[in-house]
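Progress against Task 2.4 (sequence-to-structure conversion) is shown through the following example record, which the project officer requested during the mid-term review.
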Amino acid sequence: MNDDTFVARRPSPPETTVLGIVVSIPEPWAQLLVDWRSKVGDPQASLVPPHVTLLPPTEVAVSERPAITAHLAEVARCHAPFTMHLSGTGTFAPVADVVFVAVARGIGNCELIANDVRRGPLARSLAFPYHPHVTVAHDVPADMLDLAYSGLADLSAEFPVTSFTEFEQTASGAWAVAREYPLTG
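Structure tokens generated for the chain above:
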């Protein structure tokens, strides 16, 4: 949905930066999802790595980065690794023109981590209820939404989640890895 979607945004002033916290999707599924996002014409395919959002893009003061790093490290220390299973597709239509790959296992883990991430120096509310998912088509024509929905309907991907990732938005609008936080709880 809109506040959960990593899209190109205008550059932040130098005293602030835009962060996002995610569970990254590993290979070979990451490239498969990038390929599908490209196939349906989603302009974010090359800018946004496949992921499950824990904290949507959030503008923060650069001066707060040390506190944010300490907070995220503590969150990671409180959560154990878990297994994620992606299975099938869903959509947010008619609320938003989004098709996603569904999280079938690991939903509760993502919810707990996301709730903890969105406290302290990253406290914020969301415009929509939190719903772990992997976006594969966003703001593309209806026939391309349908293609993504049907083309990935049989997808099944299971993998261990041993960390979460802090991304920082670059001046070009792409997202670069800032840090990995191993789950050690």
